[in-house]
Amino acid sequence: MLGGGADKSHLRVVRWPLRLLGMAESKSSLLAERLRILRAQKHLSQAEVAEQIDVSQTTYGSYERGATEPSASQVGMLACLYGVTSDYILGIVEFPHSLPTDGWIEDPETHKAMAIPRNARVYTSREYQKVMEAILRKKAR
């Protein structure tokens, strides 16, 4: 068991993305916004980025407008170009480089170490079940 002697097998670490709760923009508009911001931070034109990832400027512009999404390999190239993780570009995580953690906990199902994100809440199995039910009810509306 990691991190002390207390049995934590009944706990799960959960950090809920706001869009999962219906409180943020759609995935494609978040991706588009991040692409625009990252390009501006690097002081690059759409044409320069498009050339780097081997697409036309029109195609890259459609990524930034949210009309289409880049392929997995293009997301990887963009992540390298911008110096961030592909998870950040895709809106999976909120931190561009790596997830800051407050420690580690053992996953009760896989027995592997999991990072505890800062500001994360550790839920009991019953609390986790209640939260999941609430999310599913909200999505069903």
Folded structure, characterized:
The protein is an alpha+beta fold and 141 residues long. The protein has two domains: 11-17 and 97-140, no CATH class; 27-89, lambda repressor-like DNA-binding domains (434 Repressor (Amino-terminal Domain)). It contains six helices and four strands. It has helices spanning 27-41, 46-52, 57-65, 72-82, 86-89, 125-140; strands at 11-14, 101-106, 113-117, 121-124. The strands form two sheets. It has a two-stranded antiparallel ribbon with strand order 1-4. The chain has a two-stranded antiparallel sheet with strand order 2-3. Helix 2 packs across helix 3. The longest helix has 16 residues, at 125-140. The N and C termini lie far apart (41 Å).
Structure summary:
This protein has 141 residues and is an alpha+beta fold. 44% of the residues lie in helices and 13% in strands.
Q: How would you characterize the largest beta sheet?
A: 2 strands, antiparallel
Q: CATH H level of the largest domain: which superfamily?
A: lambda repressor-like DNA-binding domains
CATH class of the largest domain: Mainly Alpha
CATH fold-level name of the largest domain: 434 Repressor (Amino-terminal Domain)
Q: Give the mean pLDDT.
A: 75
List the helices and strands and how they pair.
Blueprint: E1 11-14, H1 27-41, H2 46-52, H3 57-65, H4 72-82, H5 86-89, E2 101-106, E3 113-117, E4 121-124, H6 125-140
Antiparallel strand pairs: 1-4, 2-3
Helix pairs in contact: 2-3
